[in-house]
Amino acid sequence: MALMNPSGAGRAEDFLALVERGHRGRLKLYLGFAAGVGKTYKMLEEAHALRRRGVDIVLGFIETHGRAETAALIDGLEEVPRRKLEYRGITIEEMDVDAILARKPTIAVVDELAHTNAPGSRNRKRHQDVLELLDAGINVIGAFNVQHLESLNDVVSRNAQVQVRETVPDTFLKQADQIVNLDLAVEDLLERLRGGKIYPPDKVTWALEHFFQDQNLSTLRELSLREVAESLDRTAQARTPRGEPRRPSTGGRVMVCMSSYPPHAATLLRRGSRMAGRLSTDWFVVYVETPGESPNRIDAEVQRNLHANIEAARELGAEVVRLH
Fold it and tell me: Could you tell me how far CA 76 lies from the centroid of its own chain?
């Protein structure tokens, strides 16, 4: 994985070099700490740069949030029509995965990766749509904010007083071939907000009193910078000077012990994931099945929660060990 500066020259060319070497699709992520730092804008700028080089690139899903400067950059780029679904009397537009697969571009640009798809969609989450595109050999440039990273959910809630409901698993971030951290001074972001460049004027006051408080933004900015630095450090430690993968370290492991129905499973799993990430080591989730919890005796609700926690652990990158 490569960490890139969004203002550095040649970023489109660098990603194109990766694209030309791969069979499975390559993934490039723009990571920010808040709405308005410029993720979508930068993705669209890169899309234009790649198109000028003759690359077959399409917009799979772009969310402008009514920002005129961002919307203007859509002109001249091919958009794949969205899929329309009816849900509770409302028409919802989602990314049309089938249409993109049929179109089979070299690169698709996909925004808002933490988004939960409407009921009736082929995948529950948009990042799962992206994984399907990658498996089909389609390269993806995507974006999301750091507070949507699953393992940071508790940290963000505790330190920034922000409750995030839509998340992206850490395993998805680890699949990125390039991560571009879009950093911006908190003062500059607030100036953008007050200038009406992020939300309409009637929403600015509410935003300043809630999410866009100085301390919240500073905390999220620090988390974003730290997350990208740790991701880069993990990648560097996992390789020899010649670029050959090293064997996993034998210096230590992280193990999370989980019962069938723990009251704080999500917190335990996120903490285990963060700890393993900082130590650059593997981690395990261990569940011991008692005779009273055998498949033919376990309570149905307990079993559903157990399966959900096991799936969450795997999404966070754990190896699940089930003992009897």
Answer: 27
Residue with tokens 């917009």: 59
Residue range 263-277: mean pLDDT, rounded: 84
Any idea what DSSP says for residue 239? B
pLDDT in tens, 242-258: 455 544 444 578 899 99
Contact 286, 321 (CB under 8 A): yes
Q: What does the buried/exposed string (b/e) look like for 229-244 if buried means 16 or more CB atoms within 10 Å of the residue's CB?
A: eebeebbeeeeeeeee
Return the percent helix, strand and coil in the chain, to nearest 5: 45, 20, 35
Cβ pair 196, 45 in contact under 8 A: no
**C-alpha to C-alpha distance for 49 and 70, rounded to whole angstroms:** 15
Mean pLDDT across the chain: 85
Please report where in the chains the tokens 């790649």 appear, as a residue. Answer: 50
Closest CA to 31 of 162, 142, 166, 158: 142
Q: Do the beta carbons of residue 140 and residue 130 sit within 8 Å?
A: yes
Q: Which of 317, 313, 312, 241 is nearest to 280 (CA)?
A: 317
DSSP-based three-state secondary structure for 12? helix
Burial 274-308 (b: 16+ CB within 10 A, else e): bebbeebbebbbebeeeeebeeeebeeeeeeebee
Nearby residues of 195 by Cβ (< 8 Å), 6 or more positions away: none
**Global pTM value:** 0.71
Q: How far apart are CA 192 and CA 143, in angstroms?
A: 20
Answer for the pair 40, 72: CB distance below 8 angstroms, yes or no.
Answer: no
Residue 298 tokens read as 């376990």
Instruction: Tell me what the mean pLDDT of segment 178-184 comes to.
Output: 87
The tokens for 173 are: 């971030």
